[in-house]
Amino acid sequence: KEILRCDFDGNLCDWSVFNGSAIFENGANSSKVKINGPLTFIFSSGSFLKLQKRNEIDLLTLVSSLIKTPPKSVCITFHYYLFAADSKLLEFYKTNEQNEEFLLWSQLKSTSDKWRTTRLSLQTEEKSFSLKFKVLSNDVAFDSIFVTEGNCSFDGFCDFESDTCSFKQEEKNKNGFYWKRGKNSDSPGNTLPGVDHTTSLHGGHYLYTLNNNQNNLGVTTLSSSVIDFSFGTHCLSFWFYRQQENRDELNVWSEDAKDATTRRKLWSTIDNDFVDAEKWQFAQTSVASTTSFRIVFEALKKQTGIYTTTIALDDIRLNTQPCTPLASCDFNIDMCGFIADVSNVTFRHGYGRVKNDKNMQDSYIPPDDPTTKNVKC
């Protein structure tokens, strides 16, 4: 059941803009986005919302109407675009009747030059509340914001920034070994990853295994909700972190949605040769399906004498297309597991546009993307 929705097809619906103005764009057909802004729609038609700040000082906000008598839990979905040369602020809040603000989500750096989708599960206790975006950039665009009843389910991607996306673990076993959602500051002794993979920030979230009993070994599993993709071969990718000198094991399984005993191993740290350095590492594996299934992550604690975390997970993605070789990438969708060394340069994944075309020669033409004739790379 939908509680609130706006596709920004020429109007703001139940939303209001403060300290700025609303501009409704239609992608590459608009001259205003030749240099920055989305080149395409999130959907096939209509328009999207770009926000124009009134000045450089005031914080621009996009605020929803009051949501009255909400259900106990809701799923908030929004599509946003944020591609900028410098780090920019984008924050999302819930505001109660007393005008108190509660931060639900934030993005503090530029993303790739494409639309991104965020889904947040929110437990509601108030009689009414509103939603608010705080924007500190003219390079932000929005499309299709909607609120539905019930928690969000796993829809093919989870970055753990707001919740676990319906991934569920078995009950905490007697050995005190289990999965937990958290961030770097949660662990005494700073044994967790310094930053998450999604945001590369200390406050970014991920899942990690926690061991409360150093004398016991253990096994803990994490299962997705039922996935009902079409028949065929899909690609599961994820980022994982394992402490140096740690030999605990991570396995990935698929299981039939109706029969948990029909597990098939997809991937394991045992079968793959990875660098043991303490950094996020990329992994992918094919998933063949003829029926509905679940994805199961299994962590095995194989060392005693360690109290703290062993393995962390972030940015789990299930695509409907087969995996491509790790060294093969056209960069039209994402970075394909490539990691940019940004120690000396600013690296952006985009489509060949420049921030200020006045600095370019009249004869300059961005290079063609050899893999497609529709966009620049």
Describe the protein in words.
This protein is mainly β and 377 residues long. It folds into 2 domains: 2-152, Jelly Rolls (Sandwich); 168-319, Jelly Rolls (Sandwich), CATH 2.60.120. It has strands spanning 2-6, 15-18, 20-25, 48-53, 60-64, 67-68, 73-82, 90-96, 101-107, 116-123, 128-135, 140-149, 157-158, 168-169, 177-182, 206-211, 218-223, 232-242, 249-256, 259-268, 281-289, 293-301, 311-319. The strands form 4 sheets. Strands 1, 3, 4, 7, 10 and 12 form a 6-stranded antiparallel beta sheet that branches. Strands 2, 5, 6, 8, 9 and 11 form a 6-stranded antiparallel beta sheet that branches. Strands 13, 15, 16, 18, 21 and 23 form a 6-stranded antiparallel beta sheet that branches. The radius of gyration is 22 Å and the shape is globular. 28% of the residues are buried. It comes from Leptotrombidium deliense. Pfam families: MAM (PF00629).
How would you summarize this macromolecular structure in one to three sentences?
This protein is 0% helix and 41% strand. It is an all-beta fold and 377 residues long. The protein folds into 2 domains: 2-152, Jelly Rolls (Sandwich); 168-319, Jelly Rolls (Sandwich), CATH 2.60.120.
Briefly note the CATH topology name of the largest domain: Jelly Rolls
Tell me the number of structural domains: 2
Segments where pLDDT lies below 50 for 5+ residues? 28-35, 342-347, 351-355, 359-377
According to DSSP, the number of beta strands is 23
**Helix count, DSSP H or I runs of 4 or more residues:** 0
Major sheet characteristics: 6 strands, antiparallel
Mean pLDDT across all amino acids: 78
What is the helix content?
A: under 10%
Overall body shape: globular
Fraction of residues in β-strands: 35-45%
Q: Kindly report the oligomeric state of this protein.
A: single chain
H/E topology pattern: EEEEEEEEEEEEEEEEEEEEEEE
Q: In CATH, what is the class of the largest domain? A: Mainly Beta
Rg over CA atoms: 22 Å
Kindly report how far apart the N and C termini lie.
40 Å
Which second-level CATH architecture of the largest domain applies?
Answer: Sandwich
Structural class: mainly beta
GO cellular component, one term: membrane
InterPro entries: ConA-like_dom_sf, MAM_dom, MAM_domain-containing
Pfam family, one: MAM
Organism: Leptotrombidium deliense
